[in-house]
Each structure stands twice: as C-alpha cells, then as structure tokens.
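Bit of a strange request maybe. I'm writing a small parser for structure token strings and I need a real example to test against, not something I typed by hand. Could someone generate the tokens for this chain?
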Amino acid sequence: MDITLPAIPAGALVLLAFFAPYAQAIIQRPEWPAKWKKVVTVAVAVVLTVIVLAFYYFMTGDVVPAWPVFVILAITVAAASYALITKPSATALEIATSPK
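Reply from user aminoacidic:
Good idea to test on real output. This should exercise your parser:
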C-alpha cells in the first residue's frame, strides 16, 4: 500500500497542529481528569484535519484518500508540540481561561 500525502494540506495541517495545544487549553479545564484531556486532544486533531481537508477539497476539487494518515499526523504533531515546546504557555493559558 502506497500512501502519498499532498504537500500543501500536509504542511498546513502540521502548522495548525503545532499550535493546537493553545486551542485545547482554551477548551479544557485544569481540574479535568487526564482521560478527558486526551479526548479533547484527539477531538481537536480530528477537527483540524476536517477543516484542512475540506479547505483543500474546495480549493482543488481533489479528495484525499489517505485522510486517516492526516488524523494520525495531526495527533502526533499536537502531542509532540505540547510535550516539547508549548506545555508551559499552554498550561498558563488553560489556567488563565478557566472560570474561577
């Protein structure tokens, strides 16, 4: 099985997924259990993938058959971004945007 990813939606998805922890921080609350935070992570990645692939379809008319690969790419990039770079600032944003 050969999986070929179009470069433009893959690049756009990687860029958006890199900043996904900030969107996730606005949605979730610090007191939520870890399993719900993981659900939010996957949901944000799926929504980003749908947005990018829908935009790509409307601009080019091409359907991307490897959409599950894009979902995995978005989850991986968002998790790596959070773990390696954006954790301190995303956590601060989560605390700042949660109701007191």
